[in-house]
Write a structure and sequence with these properties.
heterodimer, A: alpha/beta, Rossmann fold, 2 domains, five-stranded parallel sheet, four-stranded parallel sheet, B: mainly alpha, ABC transporter involved in vitamin B12 uptake, BtuC, two-stranded antiparallel ribbon, 4 strands, 3% strand
């Protein structure tokens, strides 16, 4: 009886492995914020973007079978790293994509390094991911705090905003953004007169705005994102911040935030993104397709970054014919130049930094906007080789030898 | 102009005033919760979602029907209160005889469903809602710039809180209600329809939450998670004030708003957690809460 059972098991296992030998299976996990303050900037829209990338790649033609799964990390590093571990250990996921919230991203990056898988960061901003915390398994795709500081920060200082007060989100991202922007302000002749940290996902900013008003700084730097930025700007209007002569510098603002604020409140805000839906025909066509799943919404640069990263990842896996060795896939992604309809031609540097141009935008006034979604004027383009921190300043262990 | 603990006195008074404003929201919300728990012994976790519904219904009325803020202040609590009555009639009344915890689980589940529905339809970034014309702008008080709307919030919530307290503690209707909670069988013997009173009271508590939601719409982000962020703090307020005490909920709400405001000045990183630290201390020293009657 026992012999028959073990023979049956062996037979089944044989059949199972025989079936898999035909094509390579690749599993991609979209780990994002589905339910909290970053859900509109990333969330379900990122999942749609990942699925579109898989569809456009046409896995069958390359002998691949691709599956996409998703989960909500709720902005908690412990939840995020637990999901990552389960995905890598139990569910055979090969690559994790997106992960907004820099605290979660740092945690997931370490787990990915340990398991030798691939981590494509689109949502998180902390520049340390290509700095002291760089990893041969991680690529930082869409943007980072250094780029934001040197684009928005520098342009604000150069137009006369030389005294700053920071409203900082009290976790890894906020502090990194404040640190990088402070460096830019000071380097360009400005001065930081004070700062205050607020909890993540904060409803009421009246107390912090009052402290900002008392400081008499010309610029109130918002080192936060998503719902926090929206709340701060809304309540700033209520407390007469701009009437008092101070201005907000939105260091990280997405088009979803602008839509939530409305052009009346957001007009004149200067921000930096690496993707705008209305930039050219390719981006417009992609946006239209994306919108069939996300009606009434506009894609942010994070969601576009997920599409671009997944596409390039699949190209690398197809070239290697295997997704098993994370380091090898990432090395291949750094070797191959990138090209997609959303970011154009670019490349991935040795430190894991994806390079593409950055765009400085200004939010239009309601009168200037001719159709829904017509939110931005392009003020400046920062070429790819200047948009991101030079490798020599990284302090990344992968590069220093 | 002098300094207290290194903060200029002007800044301190300003923060105290802002704390009072936040305290009015805590007071309004914890009032509804105290009414429902104190009177009906239902742990209403849906309170946060009902507050959010108040804000969203006000937004929807403005967006689709052009109903302005002032009308919404009256219409929205009635609408959401009716929804609350529906919940009570369909779902909660069956749990009356069971342990409190079943009511907690049911209302928590409801809250998750309601939030998920709104998030599915509206996303999480929030909807714009303008401050009404008459309350725009503000006045410079010397030590701070006080927006008119925030001053209105303090005044309105003081009026509503006092009116509710008066209704429950000093009128005949309120006395029927308090009696019905203590001894329902006896009160029924007097010919008073106790189940109907319970349903209407639940509806009233929900209406209070919705009113707080309408008042929050112009200043706080009208988003599906606005209730869940607030509800935990409000529960802490009700526990500190004493679960059955109306006056306790009101006073504690304002007091804790001020304490939180002061924390934001001296140690902002702790502003999220100071209320819970106080709750732990109060529960250790006075388990029934500051104003509560021992069970």
């Amino acid at each position: 009886m026992r012999l028959a059972a073990s023979l049956a098991f062996a037979f089944a296992a044989l059949i199972g492995t025989a079936a898999q030998a035909q094509e390579t299976t690749v599993k991609i996990g979209v780990l994002t914020d589905m339910s909290s303050l970053y859900a509109d900037a990333t969330g379900p829209g990122s999942l749609v973007a990942a699925k579109m990338a898989v569809q456009d790649f046409n896995p069958a033609a390359h002998g691949l079978k691709v599956e996409v799964v998703s989960a909500d990390h709720q902005n908690k590093p412990d939840v995020g790293s637990n999901i990552a571990r389960q995905w890598f250990d139990v569910d055979h996921v090969d690559a994790i994509v997106d992960v907004p919230n820099s605290g979660v991203a740092l945690a997931v990056s370490e787990v990915t390094r340990e398991k030798n898988k691939v981590f494509l960061v689109s949502g998180a901003a902390i520049s340390d991911l290509t700095g002291p915390k760089c990893s041969p398994n991680t690529i930082h795709w869409t943007y980072d705090t250094w780029m934001l500081a040197n684009s928005t920060g520098k342009s604000v200082v150069k137009t006369g905003g030389d005294t700053w007060f920071f409203l900082t989100s009290d976790y890894a991202f906020g502090h990194a953004l404040e640190r990088d922007t402070t460096a830019v302000v000071v380097a360009n002749g400005g001065r930081v007169v004070g700062s205050v940290s607020h909890p993540l996902n904060n409803q009421d900013f009246s107390s912090y705005l009052l402290q900002a008003q008392t400081s008499k700084a010309k610029i109130i730097g918002l080192a936060n994102a998503g719902g926090d930025t929206i709340n701060a700007i809304k309540q700033g209007a209520e407390f007469g911040i701009t009437a008092g002569g101070q201005h907000f510098a939105g260091l990280l603002v997405f088009i979803s935030d602008v839509e939530a604020l409305g052009l009346k409140t957001a007009q004149g805000l200067v921000l930096t993104e690496t993707f705008y839906w209305d930039m050219n025909d390719a981006t417009r066509a992609w946006t239209k397709r994306w919108q069939t799943e996300r009606k009434g919404k506009l894609p942010t640069m994070i969601q576009a970054g997920v599409y671009s990263a997944v596409l390039h990842y699949l190209k690398a896996v197809a070239a290697l014919k295997s997704a098993a060795d994370g380091k090898a896939v990432v090395a291949k992604m750094k070797e191959m130049p990138t090209d997609d309809p959303l970011f154009g031609k670019g490349m991935v540097r040795a430190d894991g930094r994806k390079i593409h141009p950055a765009y400085l935008f200004q939010v239009k006034s309601p009168a200037e906007s001719k159709y829904p979604g017509d939110d931005y004027i392009l003020k400046a383009t920062i070429p790819a080789d200047q948009a991101f921190r030079p490798m020599k300043d990284d302090h990344c262990p992968l590069v220093t030898n | 102009m002098f300094e207290i603990f290194g903060i200029p006195s002007q800044a301190l008074f300003a923060q105290l005033l802002l704390g009072l404003i936040n305290g009015s929201f805590y007071a309004l919300l914890s009032l509804g919760l105290a009414v429902i728990f104190g009177m009906l012994n239902i742990i209403n976790f849906t309170h946060g979602a009902q507050y959010m519904m108040g804000a969203f219904v006000a937004y929807m009325l403005l967006q689709y029907l052009g109903v302005n803020y002032w009308a919404a202040l009256v219409v929205v609590p009635v609408l959401v209160g009716l929804l609350g009555i529906l919940i009570e009639r369909l779902l909660l009344q069956h749990l009356r005889k069971l342990d409190h915890l079943y009511g907690l689980i049911l209302t928590f589940g409801l809250a998750l469903i309601i939030e998920g529905l709104f998030r599915n339809y509206y996303g999480s970034s929030g909807q714009p809602y303008q401050v009404p014309e008459a309350l725009r702008g503000g006045r410079n008080l010397g030590f701070m710039y006080l927006p008119n709307y925030r001053a209105w919030v303090i005044a309105a919530s003081l009026v509503v809180c006092f009116a509710t307290w008066y209704l429950i503690e000093r009128t005949r209707l309120g006395s029927y209600l308090r009696a019905a909670t203590e001894n329902p069988t006896l009160v029924r013997a007097f010919g008073i329809n106790v189940p109907r009173m319970v349903t209407l009271t639940y509806g009233f508590g929900v209406a209070l939450a919705a009113l707080a939601g309408v008042m929050a719409a112009p200043i706080y982000n009208v988003s599906p998670q606005m209730g869940s962020d607030l509800i935990i703090v409000v529960f802490a307020v009700v526990v500190i004030g004493g679960m059955g005490s109306i006056m306790g909920a009101i006073v504690t709400g304002f007091m804790l708003g001020i304490v939180e405001g002061l924390t934001k000045v001296f140690f902002p990183e702790a502003s999220n957690t100071v209320i819970f630290a106080i709750m732990i201390i109060v529960l250790l020293l006075r388990p029934a809460g500051l104003f509560g009657r021992a069970a």
